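Might I ask for a little of your time on a matter of protein folding? Here, with my thanks, is the record as I have it:
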Amino acid sequence: MTSREPITLRRECDAIQIPSGTPMTLAAGTPVVITQSLGGTYTVTTDHGEMVRIAAQDVDALGIESAATAAPRASAPGPQDLEQLVWDQLRTCFDPEIPVNIVDLGLVYSMDVEPKTEGGYKVQVAMTLTAPGCGMGPAIAEDAKGKILLVPGVSDADVRITWDPPWNQQMISEEGKMKLGLI
């Protein structure tokens, strides 16, 4: 969803400046234009030309009903089923400037599911960003963690950002390259 017409924020809401990653608060009544809507978050520009990301829990400020992003319910998923559900959730996470999910961008280097002794599973993800100076890294990692924790059976998640190996365009999936017009 994108809008060419400004939308007036219905209430004050938290946002994150792009690309710095600096948290900020947008005042009620602020006019914004939606430039990207993927994975439950919205990238908007303000009337001052700032590009910011509004998280899923604040989309009602835009006058939009929040869409559920929970993983499909499964009864007592096994580790392999759980793994697929986690990958599916990671595919709902997007860089706010790029219309390709973090998996197809090649940002997720590894994902491990481990049973916990007290029950449930812990998921560990190692991911990178398209550029080392990207201030949005913590926001993207937190988005991924929150979505992983929606998977039934997952009781703990850790999303770690790494720079080794450095990301490059060859890591983008064929589907991602097609979406970006690279092939």
Notes: The domain at 7-62 is CATH 2.30.30 (SH3 type barrels.).
